[in-house]
């Protein structure tokens, strides 16, 4: 999954949002009688060990895995066995020919082979924006900044010497930590482990920047003097500044191989992490074919919180990655900060845009404004004179290419207009000349003015640096992938949203031409940036509630999420329309409330096994669930609607009532009473029974039913509302979605 960023050396496709689907390389089949060697293809092979070695050590398992291979090395001398898994997956990754794979399928213990798939990569102010500062009387204070919690990052590695990974104030790792450090300079109390799982990469050092950025967002230590391009100055800190970091390099600059990702996930669970952060993915895929979902299920069983990126396929519907219900799927929003640049027209109109580089030379007087609908991409200016002019461009090409073309043709400035689908979401970029990027709506006004020669159109560009307190905020970023959940529409995804647009965090190198070689930061965007916010917040919650299950942490984050922005109005999407639950999830994360949710919706692995059986049967259950004796005939099967999730989705037929059962556990005051409040459009009727829940003790569990029916004939689309359980101290909110879903089960 790609991300959006400002270092021109990173991904060449970062200029445009694309939905990247998982793909499998085409197999080369041997021609009969040919002397050409068969092509080797990497497969992840699921096997079922004999009972006598199923719980054996990793060495014994690896020896048994090797028995499936006819050769230990390839003709080039490379090992055929790439990874041996023992914690979250029973099996191995190996390079095989098609003939060898066919032979392997006949061996006892073979379950399934997955062709390796390609996955893609998907701050000084966000702690304040999320209410974590000041520390006194806040979640940072209550959680001791996340002390004692270990966050495992599966990404591109780490810039180990960065001040964000200083261990000042960080205690030694807990005794349960079993990991190791492959850094030449060693690790410390902050960065307690670092290993590489990418073939050909012995070092876990970051060669792209993505991993450094996500790691510091989740748990970077306090780093004063942070800034990028002269913007967003201040002290940078991650969500859990005193938590420990364990780094698993599973991606290179060209992407991430699923076998390497699974190896990192396997190691993280074995090492003893509490939270796993995965800022990558590759589109919708059945859970029994998705190695992240398969590995994360075992992590869930062990109480580990896993957060994953929703994807950068927005603003289009049904573009999600990482849809499994046992982890947290994270969408991206803006914060109340702008890197302000203004476009002032000679007619007196002024439009607010954004630009990172604000130190470029600005013409002192308004200059001619040029726009040509046939040259709006701004990369080809034949018979279109822009010398000495400010050019209005639409980003059909990489912005670096646009800037070079404008400079070469003699332009003195550029106004970049968002595409219609991007709306008001502005990805701030660095330009080598005076520039401002405008929303689609404001850009249309500028285009209309510049297109009419009678206006004698002129403009100037001015800068105002970093501006805080902008509104509306948060707003869903246009690139953030949307539901419904393609695999299981009756499970609401994404789960929640967090800051992911124009986020400042650590970076391995200087990005703005300065000389500081250590204290380096960058401002980039993507659901990759949103995910570690949730990972760090989950670490804070685990620090306050170390006995909570992964499901409890997820429930707390969902039921306390904000449905309104800082202005008290509903959170908006990139078009400044009310954001649907398919765009924002339950809402925008509220860390302080999440640490004290009042009630939680807990769920165990056995419930998910029933769900897996109902969708995928015995074959799928044997792949996802590691237990060697799982049998769907002995399991109480559950539909998606029957899972005890903190969100509710229903698809009743006309004149039908759907009854949904949920159970909540009291984690608030010992003696408390909650009353049900439902708000939903009149086309749907919802009844809650009983309407009041009374608790006499902490950990007491109560069951209730939600009866859903159409009160008017259902129109196309969905109806959204909320179920709130309200006490004197807490509001526990569950998003409710009712529609004509085509569910798999």
From TrEMBL:
<dbReference type="InterPro" id="IPR023828">
    <property type="entry name" value="Peptidase_S8_Ser-AS"/>
</dbReference>
<feature type="active site" description="Charge relay system">
    <location>
        <position position="528"/>
    </location>
</feature>
<dbReference type="GO" id="GO:0005576">
    <property type="term" value="C:extracellular region"/>
</dbReference>
<dbReference type="Pfam" id="PF17766">
    <property type="entry name" value="fn3_6"/>
</dbReference>
<dbReference type="GO" id="GO:0004252">
    <property type="term" value="F:serine-type endopeptidase activity"/>
</dbReference>
<comment type="similarity">
    <text>Belongs to the peptidase S8 family.</text>
</comment>
<dbReference type="InterPro" id="IPR015500">
    <property type="entry name" value="Peptidase_S8_subtilisin-rel"/>
</dbReference>
<dbReference type="InterPro" id="IPR041469">
    <property type="entry name" value="Subtilisin-like_FN3"/>
</dbReference>
<feature type="signal peptide">
    <location>
        <begin position="1"/>
        <end position="28"/>
    </location>
</feature>
<dbReference type="InterPro" id="IPR010259">
    <property type="entry name" value="S8pro/Inhibitor_I9"/>
</dbReference>
<feature type="domain" description="PA">
    <location>
        <begin position="368"/>
        <end position="445"/>
    </location>
</feature>
<keyword id="KW-0645">Protease</keyword>
<dbReference type="InterPro" id="IPR023827">
    <property type="entry name" value="Peptidase_S8_Asp-AS"/>
</dbReference>
<keyword id="KW-0378">Hydrolase</keyword>
<keyword id="KW-0720">Serine protease</keyword>
<dbReference type="InterPro" id="IPR037045">
    <property type="entry name" value="S8pro/Inhibitor_I9_sf"/>
</dbReference>
<dbReference type="GO" id="GO:0006508">
    <property type="term" value="P:proteolysis"/>
</dbReference>
<dbReference type="Pfam" id="PF02225">
    <property type="entry name" value="PA"/>
</dbReference>
<dbReference type="Pfam" id="PF05922">
    <property type="entry name" value="Inhibitor_I9"/>
</dbReference>
<feature type="domain" description="Inhibitor I9">
    <location>
        <begin position="42"/>
        <end position="122"/>
    </location>
</feature>
<feature type="domain" description="Subtilisin-like protease fibronectin type-III">
    <location>
        <begin position="642"/>
        <end position="738"/>
    </location>
</feature>
<dbReference type="InterPro" id="IPR045051">
    <property type="entry name" value="SBT"/>
</dbReference>
<feature type="active site" description="Charge relay system">
    <location>
        <position position="210"/>
    </location>
</feature>
<dbReference type="InterPro" id="IPR003137">
    <property type="entry name" value="PA_domain"/>
</dbReference>
<dbReference type="InterPro" id="IPR036852">
    <property type="entry name" value="Peptidase_S8/S53_dom_sf"/>
</dbReference>
<keyword id="KW-0732">Signal</keyword>
<feature type="active site" description="Charge relay system">
    <location>
        <position position="155"/>
    </location>
</feature>
<feature type="domain" description="Peptidase S8/S53">
    <location>
        <begin position="146"/>
        <end position="569"/>
    </location>
</feature>
<keyword id="KW-0325">Glycoprotein</keyword>
<dbReference type="InterPro" id="IPR034197">
    <property type="entry name" value="Peptidases_S8_3"/>
</dbReference>
<dbReference type="InterPro" id="IPR000209">
    <property type="entry name" value="Peptidase_S8/S53_dom"/>
</dbReference>
<dbReference type="Pfam" id="PF00082">
    <property type="entry name" value="Peptidase_S8"/>
</dbReference>
<protein>
    <submittedName>
        <fullName>Subtilisin-like protease SBT1.7</fullName>
    </submittedName>
</protein>
